[in-house]
């Protein structure tokens, strides 16, 4: 797409902002060199110019009167409307002409639009660096409850930042679009957005592919910051209890506790328990502590319950019961907290949509909207089905599928594989994606080794291989050998970097090559089988000489040569015929010498799979 046609999406948040766009690989948040796409919505005036983003965020406690955050709260509001807001802000906000406000820093004064424009400029620059080309147009999101003045102020900010604001859309609508819910037939969607400083819930009604806002609710002062504050206070209480003499007043200590609290909080979304250090030599503070998820949940439960109460009230306002909601979408960094997810799930009686990163989902929806407005098609991969079959490489480069294309996510499958030579103590699992019979025609997703299998005859080890695709589309492949309990696992993202066009091509090719692939695959399987049978015959040859007559032995050897000659030709059925003949000739051997169990294993192994490649 030409850069002049590109329309990016921007989530201009109270706490964080970021951009997204639809690229060849589908909708993505725009990031530079794998860094986070998120730019904190904070700016700090430093010697006549602005520091924006993470750098400014660090300055919040050090230079509070020069550092501006939560500008979004000021957008399009007059001084009277902000009466309740202003006492909370450490920087100076003064009335300006026509009832509007300006932020005063030293001798200078700035309108909220100008400040917002600085954030948008930083987002734009980041997007341009990520894309490697200029960006001129954007779709920007605002809360569903923003009035005309607030929307207009947002437009103005975009214009000041040098962006043509093609459209302003509601944040919850963007989130619903990101999940493709506007394409569906299903009626009512609830969007639960818990960010850093604000909580919003919206009930949307889909009609003719357009979302209408039925009701909104929320709390403009409830979010992750409050959780940080509660946690920081508790952490401080614990330190005080242990070291009663310590004075923890002052910005340095409070910044350290806040910062640590946020890290602990984020850790506890993942782990059940976390350890943290607090070091402040100036105050004589040095301690190591633990915090558990259970303790954290107890602290925040009342606030989380408040959000659930607001959801109930908003549903009532929309005239809907929880069970009338077809889809629930989670938005905002704080919606990652397991307790929040559990409570939302409880209320609506269904699993919320969480597949798309809650920090990115609004920007991604705006990016999709921009893409559609620019005349783009919705031809990228959605996350809710597995687009291409997933499996592992088996003997001779064949592809064994564990999960087939179009299985809905989450999905899980387990199969048992075995070794094909004696005393093999490790197997390599080579993971592929595709529709063909050979891995050389598929996409490699990764590999890992399972070691430490006790030496056993070929065909005896049982390696359970499990493929699990979670709701985020992440594939975990694990392998466990039954007797030894040895296990290993790997995570991969199968849809990463795949476009709808590519998937279509892969599917078409698999149909076109189906016959030829099948023939080649049979050939490989029969050749493998021949190899194994030859090895079996070699093993028992001494015993065979005692059991069979010269003529019978000669017939077997002659037939082995025939099989060898046939194996180099590309005729699987002819090879199979010669193999069967060899099988007839060696039957007395097999019956007499090989143990039943080993024989069965061998048969099962060849029937099911080609065996796993040897390390
Ligand atoms: P906003 O929409 O207000 O700009 P965001 O949606 O970016 O805010 O959310 C920011 C908040 O999410 C912060 O309070 C941050 O600490 C919190 N957050 C981010 N990741 C996690 C996580 N893994 N667990 C809990 N909270 C998180
Ligand atoms: Mg947000």
Textual characterization of the structure:
- By secondary structure, the protein is of the alpha+beta class.
- It folds into four domains: 3-222 and 302-383, ATPase, nucleotide binding domain (Nucleotidyltransferase, domain 5, 2-Layer Sandwich); 224-301, ATPase, substrate binding domain, subdomain 4 (Actin, Chain A, domain 4); 386-497, Sandwich (Substrate Binding Domain Of DNAk, Chain A, domain 1); 513-608, Substrate Binding Domain Of Dnak, Chain:A, Domain 2, CATH 1.20.1270.
- The protein is built from 14 helices and 26 strands.
- Strands 1, 2, 3, 4, 11 and 12 form a six-stranded mixed beta sheet that branches. The protein has a four-stranded mixed beta sheet with strand order 15-14-13-18, sandwiched between helices. It has a four-stranded antiparallel beta sheet with strand order 20-19-22-23.
- The longest helix has 34 residues, at 514-547.
- The chain is elongated.
- The model is unreliable at 605-615 (pLDDT under 50).
- Bound molecules: adenosine-5'-diphosphate (ADP) and magnesium ion (MG).
- Adenosine-5'-diphosphate is lined by residues 13-16, 195-198, 223-225, 262, 265-266, 269, 332-334, 336-337, 359.
Which properties best describe this structure?
single chain; 615 residues; alpha+beta; Nucleotidyltransferase, domain 5; Actin, Chain A, domain 4; Substrate Binding Domain Of DNAk, Chain A, domain 1; 4 domains; six-stranded mixed β-sheet; four-stranded mixed β-sheet; 14 helices; elongated; disordered C terminus; binds adenosine-5'-diphosphate; binds magnesium ion
């Amino acid at each position: 797409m030409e850069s002049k046609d590109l329309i990016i999406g921007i989530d201009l948040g109270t706490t964080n902002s970021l951009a997204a766009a639809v690229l060849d690989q589908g909708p993505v948040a725009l990031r530079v060199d794998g860094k986070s796409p998120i730019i904190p919505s904070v700016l700090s005036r430093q010697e006549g110019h602005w520091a924006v983003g993470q750098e400014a965020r660090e300055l919040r406690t050090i230079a509070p009167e020069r550092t501006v955050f939560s500008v979004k709260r000021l957008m399009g509001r007059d001084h009277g409307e902000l009466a309740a807001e202003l006492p909370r802000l450490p920087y100076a906000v003064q009335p300006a002409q026509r009832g509007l406000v300006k932020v005063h820093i030293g001798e200078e004064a700035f309108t909220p639009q100008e400040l917002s424009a600085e954030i948008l400029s930083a987002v734009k620059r980041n997007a341009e660096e990520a894309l490697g080309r200029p960006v001129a147009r954007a779709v920007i999101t605002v809360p569903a409850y923003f009035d005309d003045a607030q929307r207009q102020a947002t437009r103005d900010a975009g214009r000041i930042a040098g962006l043509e604001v093609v459209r302003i859309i509601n944040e919850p609508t963007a989130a619903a679009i990101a999940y493709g819910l506007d394409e569906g037939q299903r009626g009512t969607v609830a969007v639960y957005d818990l960010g850093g400083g604000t909580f919003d819930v919206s009930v949307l009604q889909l009609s003719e592919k357009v979302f209408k806002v039925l009701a909104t609710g929320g709390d403009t002062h409830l979010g992750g910051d409050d959780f940080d504050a509660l946690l920081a206070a508790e952490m401080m209480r614990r330190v005080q209890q242990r070291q009663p003499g310590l004075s923890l007043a002052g910005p340095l200590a409070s910044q350290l506790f806040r910062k640590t609290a946020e890290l602990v909080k984020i850790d506890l979304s993942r782990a059940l328990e976390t350890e943290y250090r607090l070091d402040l030599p100036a105050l004589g503070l040095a301690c190591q502590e633990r915090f558990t998820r259970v303790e954290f949940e107890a602290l925040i439960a009342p606030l989380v319950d408040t959000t659930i109460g607001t959801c109930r009230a908003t549903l009532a306002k929309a005239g809907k019961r929880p069970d009338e909601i077809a889809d629930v979408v989670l938005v905002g960094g704080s919606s990652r907290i397991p307790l929040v997810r559990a409570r939302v799930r409880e209320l609506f009686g269904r699993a919320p949509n969480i597949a798309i990163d809650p920090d990115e989902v609004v920007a991604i929806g705006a990016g999709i909207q921009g893409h559609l407005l620019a005349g783009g098609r919705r031809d990228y991969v959605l996350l809710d089905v597995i687009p291409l079959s997933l499996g592992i490489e088996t003997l001779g480069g064949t592809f064994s599928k564990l999960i087939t294309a179009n299985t809905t996510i989450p999905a899980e499958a387990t199969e048992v594989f075995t070794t094909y030579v004696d005393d093999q103590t490790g197997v390599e699992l080579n993971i592929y994606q595709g529709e063909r019979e050979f891995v050389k025609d598929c996409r490699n997703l990764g590999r890992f080794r399972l070691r430490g299998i006790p030496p056993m005859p070929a065909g005896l080890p049982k390696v359970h291989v499990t493929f699990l695709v979670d709701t985020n589309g992440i594939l975990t492949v694990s392998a466990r050998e039954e007797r030894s309990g040895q296990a290993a696992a790997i995570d991969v993202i199968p849809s990463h970097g795949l476009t709808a066009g590519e998937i279509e091509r892969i599917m078409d090719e698999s149909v076109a090559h189906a016959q030829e692939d099948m023939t080649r695959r049979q050939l490989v399987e029969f050749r493998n089988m021949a190899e194994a049978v030859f090895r079996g015959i070699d093993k028992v040859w001494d015993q065979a000489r005692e059991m069979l007559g010269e003529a019978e032995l000669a017939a077997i050897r002659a037939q082995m040569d025939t099989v060898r000659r046939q194996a180099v030709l590309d005729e699987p059925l002819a090879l199979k015929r010669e193999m069967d003949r060899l099988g007839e000739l060696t039957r007395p051997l097999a019956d007499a010498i090989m143990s039943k169990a080993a024989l069965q294993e061998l048969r099962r192994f060849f029937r099911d799979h080609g065996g796993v490649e040897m390390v």
